[in-house]
Amino acid sequence: MPFNRLASQLSRLGPGLVLSVAATGLAFAIHTVLPAIPAMTLAVALGLLSANIPGTAVLVAGRARPGLDFAGKHLMRAGIVLLGLKVSVWDVLGLGWLSLLLIAGVVLISFAGTYGLARLLRLPGEASLLIATGFSICGASAIGAMAAVRRIRHQDTVLPVALVTLCGTLAIGVLPLLMHPLNLNPAQFGAWTGASVHDVGQVVATAQTAGTAALAIAVVVKLTRVVLLAPIVAAAGLHQRIQHVRERANGSSDADDVDARFPPIVPLFVVGFIAMVAFRSTGWATPELLEAAAVAQDIVLASALFGLGSAVRVRTLIHTGGRAALVALGSWLIIASLGLGAAWIMIR
């Protein structure tokens, strides 16, 4: 019987997972030819194309859909766990307390500003929360973590992921053009990039245009923002728990409903992320292990992003995403401005 269940699951999920892996391979192949375009951005773009080209739209909406949804949810969580191996507490502390306070301030203010702007433009609370999380912390990975702890439907993460990927891609082209007009030296440009660009891959693609000095500080500043994923997600989980208790007390939550169970304050995969940060910080991880983990993280995250992108219908996006796009652009300006100010203070 277990074998039959396994065979049934493989039959159901197989087509979508195979398609995700194949698209990931294509994304990395294109990235090899065009290094300026991150593989993660290409994975989302290929997902969008697959969902909106007549020849493949039927496949991704039908037989491949269960596997693509599995990739978008579970492979995303695996990627978040592996992301922890990129973060060393000692590298973060090496920035100094002033820099740490500035980076935390950028994250918190951009989070609050984005959420406030989204509510002002009357976006739903869940969409507002996901966009604020993705833009202020670490892009699609942060959106996936927040969606899990707040029990937000997988389908509702698609638009925020598309927007944060789009704006991060725009940053790759726009920020380097502003380096000289703003009179930034490479270290300042790297700090600005790390403080304001969303995904780690996009940070690398942007900062490397100014050389190795810019890239080195950009990565450390960015990973400092990534560290804040755990406490912010935990705070969101605690808030959800308090709301849940109040609903039960008021009789508005059905105790027999599956969704009425207490939601986790910190999901297991976020605990895994913290454990990987701790392991990396011990110095026990060999360079070979870290390199292998980085490759694995890129593969599973790209597969997840393809799965998410394949759920986006351009026609629906045009009709429902106008206000969300305005919020995304506004958030991009907020965090870019805050990050620039922080970079000027950190590196004089």
Task: Describe it.
With 348 residues, the protein is mainly alpha-helical. Helices cover 78% and strands 0% of the residues. The protein contains 17 helices and no strands. Helix 2 packs parallel to helix 15 (287-309), helix 8 packs parallel to helix 13 and helix 9 (158-178) crosses helix 17. The protein is globular, with a radius of gyration of 20 Å. The N and C termini lie far apart (67 Å).
Query: Quick check: average pLDDT?
Result: 85
Radius of gyration of CA atoms, rounded to a whole number: 20 Å
Structural shape = globular
Instruction: Kindly estimate the percentage of residues that lie in beta strands according to DSSP.
Output: under 5%
Query: Tally of extended strands?
Result: 0
Report the major sheet.
Answer: none
* Intertermini distance: 67 Å
Number of helices, counting only DSSP H or I runs of 4 residues or more: 17
Order of helices and strands: HHHHHHHHHHHHHHHHH
Roughly how much helix do the residues carry, as a percent range?
over 70%
Task: Name the structural class.
Answer: mainly alpha
Give the low-pLDDT segments.
255-260
